[in-house]
Design a protein that fits this description.
The complex is a heterodimer of chains A (about 325) and B (about 300).
Chain A (H helix, E strand, L loop, with lengths): L12 H7 L11 H10 L1 H18 L1 H4 L31 H37 L1 H15 L3 H12 L3 H27 L3 H8 L4 H37 L11 H9 L7 H28 L4 H4 L5
Chain B lengths: L1 H12 L4 H6 L5 H11 L5 H13 L13 H36 L4 H15 L2 H15 L15 H35 L2 H8 L4 H30 L2 H6 L5 H11 L2 H29 L6
Helix pairs in contact in B: 1-13, 5-6, 5-8, 5-10, 5-13, 6-8, 7-8, 8-10, 9-10, 10-13, 12-13
Classes of the chains: A mainly alpha (about 325), B mainly alpha (about 300).
């Protein structure tokens, strides 16, 4: 438990490998191979392609969008989809297509930030709990259980009530809500890895805990965490939309998909396109993250299929 | 205990002065002080916690800052709507998941299986509030078959109750059903491939016997777990769907409490949700031992 990399040469990979027959080391996921397998799955490859498109759209949003997100044009208000406005216009005459494109950035930023927070904190907690066991495990996981006992949406709402609305706080709220899920997945995976021969061998030749955790335990425990990341991205995008829909997330006039849905709801009888297209954008993004998660699971971690199906919803 | 501390602490962190908010813009210092003293907010936090937790144990969750009603009565008022929607949704979810999951497990990679995968993927990915809006547009707007929202008690108007229940239950039921379908499919598949099922088939038992006694019983365990999780979610997490359908449930109450900084109501609601979650977990554990006697050891 020194937390310091050990200086002795015994801790070097060569020395570790020399002490253990090479067959005892499980095949680590090789990235090129994994990617190849993933791309051979048409659903996963297609989803990855669509997501790539959405990410590019979010990066180059201002240069692709036909008009500005908040360019108001009263004479064009509530126009049905046409060549000029493929997704129609809203009650202020703003082009919905442009707002959907510019909303991609908001949704993805919040989604990635939220999952990043959950991934970082949850993985560290799960790693420590799973590796050290005993009281460390008890204390950390009981706390995680407590956090898990709160309904996700309400916990996020309560955090937003404390911190105030806005994109950054939405990401923080969603991130905190997903910490226990990452902690659990990581812990379960670490439990399966920590008694492996290569970990024990490395420990017996004097590798420090930090080295064991970062060089041996984490890389071998990673596949379920990667799968969980993709699935959580789907739910984070969904949660951002829901919180913005409630008026607690992204604030107007910023174009967030959830917020656009909320604005369009009032015009549902008059202009269906206001709510339809932002909803389709959320659905498509979430669907692709889910399908990619399924594909990743098939490639990286087939055993987890039943355990994690359905994620945190 | 831990849960109650978190609930209390979280709610205390909410910024804004609840007394000021409850009184509006025009009030005098005397009224303010009187209300502050009556609500106990002038006492130290630790004492406030013990006062609150002690009373909560006896079922007294305090009085709403906003309406002056007791939190228990406010929750009791909303409970029927929430319970109705949650149980109706679970019925819809199981009605979708059990047949779809079982059939697709019995015929893996068939057309039915692919259809089931598409349906469950759709349900997991679709934003429930968007689906709600689209259904309202189609069934309430264009077709005019069903009302777009609201709630009437069963005792007052059974037909109106059912009509208003269909759309929200369909939305939340589809989402939960999609999650459950995946579990049913994989657990039935796993049970079908197990040794004891092969033995039962080899023994010459009829398909129905094998399926009913050996497959379903083993597939039931994960189904109970996931149904429990989904029920807990439905009892607490469908705030957005409640808002879209103007369904006067607990989620809506909690959201209003957040917006009004109504501490006692928010504390009461969140505590109730956390307790519901724990109770459902307990019930699931009890059901486990009933389904699988090996766990009793």
């Amino acid at each position: 438990m020194t937390g310091q990399p050990l200086p002795e040469p015994a801790a070097s990979p060569t020395a570790t490998d020399a002490g253990v027959p090479s067959t005892s080391r499980p095949p680590r996921p090789r990235w090129r191979e994994t990617l190849g397998l993933l791309l051979r799955n048409p659903t996963a490859a297609g989803s990855a392609l669509v997501l790539l498109g959405i990410v590019l759209m979010a990066i180059f949003d201002e240069s692709i969008a036909p008009s500005g997100a908040n360019q108001i044009s009263v004479e064009d208000r509530l126009q049905a989809p046409s060549w000029e406005h493929p997704f129609g216009t809203d009650d202020l005459g703003r082009d919905i297509l442009s707002r959907v494109i510019l909303g991609a950035g908001v949704s993805l930023r919040v989604g990635f930030l939220a999952v990043g927070i959950a991934l970082l904190i949850g993985t560290v907690i799960g790693l420590l709990a799973g590796y050290y066991g005993r009281w460390v495990d008890d204390v950390l996981m009981r706390f995680m259980d407590m956090l898990f006992a709160f309904p996700a949406v309400l916990l996020a709402i309560a955090i937003l009530a404390v911190r105030g609305p806005g994109s950054g706080n939405t990401a923080l709220a969603i991130g905190i809500v997903y910490v226990p899920i990452f902690a659990r997945v990581t812990r379960a995976s670490v439990l399966g890895v920590r008694e492996e021969v290569y970990v024990r061998a490395s420990r017996s030749v004097g590798a420090s805990d930090l080295r064991l955790l970062t060089r041996h335990v984490l890389p071998n425990a990673a596949p379920p965490i990667i799968v969980q990341t993709s699935i959580s991205l789907a739910f984070a995008v969904l949660a951002e939309a829901a919180l913005s829909f409630l008026g607690l997330g992204t604030q107007p006039p910023n174009p967030s998909w959830g917020l656009m849905l909320a604005e369009g709801r009032g015009y549902i009888d008059l202009a269906w396109w206001l709510a339809f297209f932002p909803g389709m954008a959320i659905f498509l993004t979430v669907l692709c993250f889910n399908l990619l998660g399924d594909g990743l699971r098939d490639v990286l971690d087939p055993r987890q299929r039943t355990l994690m199906a359905g994620g945190g919803r | 205990m831990g849960v109650s501390v978190i609930v209390f602490a979280l709610v205390q962190l909410v910024p804004g002065d609840p007394i000021r908010l409850a009184l509006g813009t025009r009030f005098d210092q005397e009224t303010y002080d009187a209300l502050l003293e009556r609500s106990g907010l002038d006492q130290p936090l630790v004492q406030q916690y013990f006062n609150w937790a002690g009373r909560a144990l006896t079922g007294d969750l305090g009085v709403s800052f906003r309406s002056g009603e007791t939190v228990t009565s406010l929750i009791a008022e909303r409970l029927p709507a929430t319970l109705t929607l949650a149980f109706a949704s679970i019925v819809v979810a199981l009605a979708i998941a059990i047949p779809l999951g079982t059939v697709s497990a019995l015929r893996p990679r068939s057309l039915v299986d692919r259809f089931a995968t598409v349906i469950s993927q759709f349900g997991i990915s679709v934003p429930d509030f968007w689906m709600a809006i689209v259904l309202i547009l189609v069934f309430a707007g264009t077709l005019g078959w069903l009302p777009s929202g609201g709630y009437v008690p069963l005792s007052e108007d059974p037909l109106g109750w059912l009509q208003r229940l269909i759309l929200p239950a369909l939305v939340t039921g589809t989402v939960s059903g999609s999650v459950i379908t995946r579990f049913v499919r994989s657990s039935v598949l796993e049970a079908l491939g197990s040794d004891h099922v092969r033995t039962a088939q080899a023994k010459g038992l009829r398909t129905r016997q094998v399926f009913g006694w050996h497959v379903l019983r083993n597939a039931l365990l994960p189904l109970v777990t996931v149904t429990g999780v989904q029920l807990a979610y439905l009892l607490s997490g469908v705030v957005v769907v409640e808002i879209v359908f103007s369904w006067p449930g607990l989620g809506q109450l909690a959201l209003q409490a957040v917006q009004a900084r109504d501490y006692p109501v928010l504390q009461g609601a969140i505590l109730l949700f956390a307790v519901v979650f724990l109770v459902i977990n307990l019930v699931v554990d009890v059901l486990y031992t009933a389904i699988d006697p090996r766990i009793r050891r």
